Amino acid sequence: MSDISFSLTEYYKNFGIEDSVYKLGEEVLNECSDRFKDIDRISELNQIKVLKAFCDNKVSEACLLGTSGYGYNDLGRETLEKVYASVFKTEDAIVRPQITCGTHALSLALSANLRPGDELLSPVGKPYDTLEEVIGIRESKGSLKEYGISYRQVDLLKDDKFDLEGIKQAINDRTKLVTIQRSKGYQTRKSFSVKEIAELIKFIKDVNPGLKVMVDNCYGEFTDVCEPSEFGADMTVGSLIKNPGGGLAPIGGYIVGTKECIENIAYRLTSPGLGREVGASLDTLKSFYQGLFLSPTVSASALKGAIFAAGIYEKLGFECVPGFKGERNDIIQAVAFHDPNKLITFCEAIQAASPIDSFVNPEPWDMPGYDSKVIMAAGTFVSGASIELSADGPLREPYAAYFQGGITWPHVKIGILNTVQALKNKGLIDIK
Ligand SMILES: *Cc1c(COP(=O)(O)O)cnc(C)c1O
User: Fold this and answer.
1) Into how many domains does the chain fold?
2) Containing domain of residue 19, as a range?
3) pLDDT digits 0-9 by tens, 302-330
4) Shared-domain flag, residues 238 and 100
């Protein structure tokens, strides 16, 4: 055992990571063991859940083959959608490579289930940046606002609690759909637990049982033993280049939910009259199946990495959301640097510890959909896939790095240690 420790520190040194940084990592790791055990149990449960869904739906070798052209009678696509519905315990699901990303999946779910004159309500404050343009909070071509769909928002109370009284008052005759975002996105609020979301859904349905509820589940999948879809959400939505794609899916999004909502979405995704019957899966199916199968352990690796990062950066005196001991409801770790230089150094070091494009230096740029410059590190196999080790942050106060992903736990650990080393090399932190 001592030999392995010795060689390990040698390998780290070879990677540019000094003993003092490695030792800091080991100290934090010692405090992680109970949390890591819990995470392993959650991933074990989710692995059973996913395997059972494969078995129950008789996934066969033929399902891994794709179709081309119109894609009629695509056995693999139809079975995959049944597998998703089983895993998320919903009536139906739509899972397609034609859904280009998470924003598209959310936009689709909203536009397919709202009509002119309807109102959308967010009872959890401002939604994810890219959704602002989908909704029309920021002027944008093709927004829901252009189609006469209005929007209302109820902010969270000071302690990140739901403003139940405010929500009740905001619901009116025009309110048709309520959107709940599980993950914090680019905010420093906490991410909501499935239990909290379940309580909010119940509250909303008690006020008006006719309201549809959509949950933006991005980054939350398989971090808990259950999903929001099990607690009355009419639609639960996510991206396949995040958790459920397991690092293998090259594109895609999913929506799981009621038959009615999914049917509306299918007609919006392709065309009225055609719906879900078309949409060739090309060569994507094997990666969708295998990625979903790996997702419980991949998501667990990312979760461990997030906790490890919080442990290290709290020790170094930075505010972390969630905190090291805090509850986890997604794979995102925010570290507030309050300094553009530190944020940029952090992202550069993540890029430098990536398998692809490690030699490239990321620079802040005006990304479509975001309202300030963003720096992004994503040296990933699937371009921009944030289930792989990646970091990003908008260049605005609090200059927070949003760190996520890592399809293997050792890789996340190396990445985080590399960020500490880079900050130390530039004299931006002190390590005793
Ligand atoms: C990533 C994310 C989205 C958008 O997904 P993209 O695939 O980047 O378009 C939406 N909501 C939340 C909470 C997210 O984390």
Assistant:
1) 2
2) 4-45+295-425
3) 999 999 999 999 999 999 999 999 999 99
4) yes
